[in-house]
């Protein structure tokens, strides 16, 4: 019975992980890039989940649009691309802030080390899968398909540093919490 509960926790963690990731893109689009709310939408139950932008012809465009219309539509709101890195990495930013704070709060206030490290470990695993699947697909197809491969196109050093410190933040908190279990 206990294993079933942990599997359910895993699915809930995955769902909230995907939701907060897409919400991060949405929030960066709305509040940093200033995309009007009627022109940006979270499509959580599409394959893959994504944030869509509405083109001038009123079509909803997904990020992996093969004709490049998503990028064209994005640049109508941010012509110089000044906020493009934040928009692309907004999913990682929000999900990391929320999950790391949640895990630390569970550890610090509730004293549930197992659940805290489950959240951190699960989130770290999801990030690894997302990042490296994106990079593998990019290597195979030779076209960007996700956040990491897209941002590598225009900001390779910034992207590598961002991903390194993102993953490092999970590892540091995981080790910090785990270290206290040994005392």
UniProtKB/TrEMBL annotation:
The chain crosses the membrane at residues 6-24, 85-110, 116-138, 159-177. It comes from the Bacteria. Keywords: Membrane, Transmembrane, Transmembrane helix. This is Peptidase M50 domain-containing protein. The lineage of its organism: Bacteria, Bacillati, Bacillota, Bacilli, Bacillales.
């Amino acid at each position: 019975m206990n294993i079933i509960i942990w599997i359910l926790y895993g699915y809930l963690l995955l769902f909230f992980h995907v939701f907060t990731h897409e919400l991060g893109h949405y929030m960066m689009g709305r509040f940093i890039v200033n995309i009007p709310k009627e022109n940006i939408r979270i499509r959580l139950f599409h394959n893959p989940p994504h944030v869509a932008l509405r083109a001038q012809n009123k079509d909803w465009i997904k990020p992996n649009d093969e004709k490049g219309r998503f990028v064209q539509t994005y640049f109508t709101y941010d012509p110089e691309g000044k906020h493009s890195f934040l928009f692309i990495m907004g999913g990682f930013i929000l999900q990391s802030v929320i999950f790391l704070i949640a895990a630390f709060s569970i550890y610090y206030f509730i004293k549930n080390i197992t659940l805290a490290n489950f959240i951190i470990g699960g989130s770290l695993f999801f990030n690894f899968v997302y990042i490296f699947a994106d990079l593998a697909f990019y290597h195979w197809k030779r076209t960007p398909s996700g956040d990491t491969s897209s941002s590598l196109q225009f900001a390779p050093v910034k992207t590598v540093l961002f991903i390194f410190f993102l993953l490092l933040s999970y590892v540091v908190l995981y080790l910090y919490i785990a270290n206290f279990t040994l005392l």
